[in-house]
Amino acid sequence: MLYQIAICDDNPADAAYLTGLVEEWAAASHVAVSLEAFPSAEAFLFRCGDAPPLDMLLLDIEMGEMDGVALAKTLRQKNDLLQIIFVTGFADYIADGYDVSALHYLLKPASQEKLFEVLSRAKDRLQRADRFLAILTAENGGNLCRLPLREIRFLEAQQNYVIIHAEKDYTVRRPLSELEKELDERFFRTGRSFILNLAAVRQVGRRDVTLSDGTSLPLPRGMYEPLNRAIINYH
Hints:
The chain is α/β, with parallel strands linked by helices and 235 residues long. It has helices at residues 12-29, 41-48, 68-76, 94-99, 112-128, 176-180, 224-234; strands at 2-8, 32-38, 56-59, 83-88, 104-107, 132-136, 144-148, 154-158, 161-165, 169-172, 187-189, 194-197, 201-204, 208-211, 216-218. The strands form 4 sheets. The protein has a 5-stranded parallel β-sheet. Strands 10-9-8-12-11 form a 5-stranded antiparallel β-sheet, with no helix packed on it. Strands 13-14-15 form a 3-stranded antiparallel β-sheet, covered by helices on one side. Helix 1 (12-29) crosses helix 5. It is elongated and about 60 Å long.
């Protein structure tokens, strides 16, 4: 697989440093990459408007008129698989990284060891993105449906059924515990009734959790800290 990677940084020295590290990572990991660097968010949008979808983006934050967070929000609307890695000299924007489901937030100068680790994690995520859940649903006339795991926001048990909330809802007559075995580490069970996609979590409160689409779900007592740990480990 050829990984499409871009670097967007208005500091030429920083961009060159990251370019060298990415090339070293690709050689060490035995993967093929197509790599291009951009001096601004505007240059990136001008060049990549009709280009093949990116796989990874190493993105500075404080740049010119359009900053990295604004660029990330624009790109996230079109590509939910893009692995965004913020690489910046400022620690004030970590919360913004969660808003755009950034994979990681690195402070400059990023070490080779840490960047290699994050790039490898991005590669693993992209490889897992193709996984499916095979289900028989009433909405599909009883036919087999292959539902991409990345599209699932959460699963909800209701009596003898489970509702899978994705781009649309699917109802299956299978136990939640059985479906849980077919999911991967991006999913977390919060209690008897719900399994959440960690990538879809926007905010965790003591009594509820808010997903990226605004859905609010109850959080059982004792689940606040385990859920936060799961999110940190996943990211």
